[in-house]
């Protein structure tokens, strides 16, 4: 049995990730700790798997951001922070794209010689994670996860944010809500729906199922869903939750064209806190998450995973926050 | 002297690019033409430089989209169309980024083994084009060009669009304009300024230099520039041109906060026709260009250039169009 990084960690009295970082000379580890780790590794005769791989297969120090849904411009927000964090860790970022479950993508990643992958937008049923695992390519889920393979993941926890939003809405007199939910095929839409329904129920707001729609995560879909909601004969609820800000922008556009006052007639809440949500002419109540920090953590996780594939997968949860703005007002009476 | 693709083109009675396309089995060329070209090539004993390079240096069929200004999210709009067009031509897209004139970027492109580069946002004085030329890496300028090296380029021609905008503004009674111009270090800002000034003068609208500012191409810069304009004591002109839509959105935000009516007090015109410009709550008059088609042409030009480096550089100009919307109204009296 070869010596593992965990044994080095125990002897050095540090965590396993610190061992990986120390041995690749990561600037986040102090010189003193690096020295302790190096001595422990030498004492145990530890050989980094990374070093072996460098000799046998040639590390490229390139990491792919794999986007499986190019129309969803969510990934744009994370390119810059992932790129910068990887650069400080001595890695280069390359953007790879596939159209829905393209058979060839994993082969192309292999031939492009990437050391690891940040997987940004897989549908829940995607087979890409299975193929990456089968080819031994380390990867980390960013925001969306897939049920097929466990791996390191950086995700948003929306519970507290929806709870605050529902509490605030209840205080403003809202008793009944509609929703434009995201595609069931995405883990983010599923998690947000569960969290939203729980929060609304907790605060005495009923979900009116006649006013629940599903839409892809873009503003055109939001416009159409809102048209469909407004076309219903029944009385529209006073409150509408949207799968993300793009969908909410679309809903606001339709409301504006139809002369439906927001928040006078219907209050609207988004998700993401895109820059336009803050524009005074939009002023969208929404749920914010620190995607930049999530992106940096994803960069760190994939580098750690490349260095040492043995530890169990890590799941890093980021708690979202409700941001109250003008589109949430008192319930129409 | 080896036989060139131009001689093959003459014998086959087709253009040189058609020869390149036919010999790489591009689907845009008919089977009949491919046959004619193959016969002409065989008759002359023509050997494709591509074939030689594949054997000697190993083509990767990877093309980099090089973004030198990651904060400018303009490049986002072209990722999908460049990616798709390259895929149909048998090439993969990889996104590479650099912070302003990073010394190492060209070396990284060499080590990543890209066959060519689409250069999206170089400042005019960038040395990256010189380094690419010196290392023999084919590249094409997208939208912005640099004065240092001539190369294939896909650019926007704004003259007709600004002429129409100025004519329309003059008809609405505007006689004096201000402007938030882009950075002098970009070829796009320079070209737009020249074109705008010429158009305004032609239609009897004076540029009031007290109300001219420069800003980077983002909405924060637009907000600040508009604050600075509104802080002037002198009477603000009735018309304001903005370097791009993001700058215009920022200016609209500041106007909204300051209670300055658009277009009642000041009309605003952007550039780019971003999706949000069409939102009814924004309704921004702007200048549109078919960036998707430009992106596809850039993909074609770089593949042609990789196949044959001998022809002189091509410059493809796309004519922009004025899009009249709600933020352009009659001049305040």
Automatic annotation (TrEMBL), chains A, B:
SMART domains: HTH_LACI. InterPro entries: HTH_LacI, LacI/GalR-like_sensor, Lambda_DNA-bd_dom_sf, Peripla_BP_I. It comes from the Bacteria. Transmembrane segments: none annotated. SUPFAM superfamilies: lambda repressor-like DNA-binding domains (SSF47413), Periplasmic binding protein-like I (SSF53822). CDD domains: HTH_LacI (cd01392). The keyword Plastid does not apply. This is LacI family transcriptional regulator. The lineage of its organism: Bacteria, Bacillati, Actinomycetota, Actinomycetes, Micrococcales.
């Amino acid at each position: 049995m070869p010596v593992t990084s965990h044994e080095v960690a125990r002897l050095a009295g540090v965590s396993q990730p610190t061992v990986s970082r120390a041995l690749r000379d990561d600037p986040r580890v102090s010189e003193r700790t690096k020295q302790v780790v190096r001595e422990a590794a030498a004492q145990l005769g530890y050989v980094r798997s990374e070093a072996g791989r460098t000799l046998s297969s040639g590390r490229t120090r390139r990491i792919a951001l794999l986007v499986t849904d190019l129309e969803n411009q969510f990934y744009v927000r994370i390119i810059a922070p992932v790129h910068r964090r990887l650069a400080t860790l001595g890695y280069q970022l390359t953007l790879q794209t596939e159209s829905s479950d393209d058979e060839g993508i994993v082969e192309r990643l292999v031939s492009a010689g990437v050391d690891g992958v940040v997987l940004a937008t897989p549908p829940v049923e995607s087979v890409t994670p299975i193929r990456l695992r089968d080819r031994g390519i380390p990867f980390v889920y960013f925001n969306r996860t897939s049920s097929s393979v466990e791996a390191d993941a950086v995700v948003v926890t929306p519970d507290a944010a929806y709870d605050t939003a529902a509490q605030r809405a209840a205080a403003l007199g809202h008793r009944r809500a509609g929703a434009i939910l995201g595609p069931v095929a995405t883990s983010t839409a599923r998690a947000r729906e569960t969290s939203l329904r729980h929060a609304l129920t907790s605060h005495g707001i009923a979900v009116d199922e006649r006013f629940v729609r599903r839409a892809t995560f873009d503003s055109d879909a939001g416009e159409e869903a809102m048209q469909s909601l407004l076309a219903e004969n029944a009385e529209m609820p006073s409150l509408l939750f949207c799968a993300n800000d793009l969908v909410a922008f679309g809903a606001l556009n339709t409301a504006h064209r139809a002369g439906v006052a927001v928040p006078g007639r219907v209050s609207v809440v988004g998700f993401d806190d895109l820059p336009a949500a803050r524009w005074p002419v939009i002023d969208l109540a929404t749920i914010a998450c620190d995607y930049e920090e999530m992106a940096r953590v994803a960069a760190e996780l994939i580098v750690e995973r490349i260095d040492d594939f043995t530890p169990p997968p890590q799941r890093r949860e980021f708690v979202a926050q409700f941001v109250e703005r003008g589109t949430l007002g008192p319930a129409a009476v």
